[in-house]
Design a protein that fits this description.
- The chain is mainly alpha-helical.
- It is built from four helices and three strands, in the order ααααβββ.
- Strands 2-1-3 form a three-stranded antiparallel beta sheet.
- The mean pLDDT is 96.
- Bound molecules: fe (ii) ion (2 copies).
């Protein structure tokens, strides 16, 4: 049985919401600790935090499912995320250039790897869309709105979304979206 939306609109919704955020934040913190531990030569500590972080990430997704934080029919979301991932390659590369110019060459070097990974995420998602939902890639004649912050693409009538609609990736409000020409 699907857990999708089981706490949405119930008195348990705030609990799932709080837990989703706490677990996502824990994921970030544990990966940062893993990184620091590795820099300090403690491989075992690093591995432990990576293991914990991966589990926290699973937990975050669990609560997000309970609260229906992504659509159950998710392929149009994946198509929009694919666009953001492709754009992410360019934007992260541009950020890396800024970091390098500011003297942070080592950080910039890693960010350049991340940039390529973003592009690869886009390719992976495109591959899955072609395999399972090719019609979601056919946006010919449809209206597309692009999130000015992260590049997520919304296909369809954005005006029909509630006023409190936010970008599913970066959380920015409707007003940052621009119609794609
Ligand atoms: Fe990515
Ligand atoms: Fe966004």
């Amino acid at each position: 049985m699907s857990l999708y939306g089981q706490t949405k609109g119930t008195p348990l919704e705030p609990i799932s919401e709080m837990m989703a955020k706490a677990e996502a934040n824990g994921t970030m913190m544990y990966y940062a600790l893993a990184r620091l531990a590795k820099e300090q030569g403690m491989e075992d500590v690093s591995k432990t935090f990576i293991e914990a972080a991966n589990q926290e990430a699973v937990h975050a997704g669990f609560y997000a499912t309970l609260n229906a934080m992504v659509p159950q029919d998710f392929w149009m979301l994946v198509r929009g995320v694919m666009a953001a991932e492709y754009r992410g390659e360019t934007t992260v590369k541009a950020m890396a250039d800024k970091f390098r110019a500011a003297g942070l060459a080592e950080a910039a070097g890693e960010m350049e790897i991340f940039a390529k990974q973003e592009g690869h995420h886009g390719e992976m998602m495109e591959g899955l869309l072609k395999k399972y939902k090719p019609e979601a890639l056919d946006v010919e004649g449809k209206t597309i709105y692009v999130c000015g912050c992260c590049g997520f693409e919304y296909v369809g009538d954005l005006d029909a979304e509630p006023e409190d609609y936010v970008c599913p990736i970066c959380g920015q409000p409707k007003k940052v979206f621009r119609r794609k020409e």
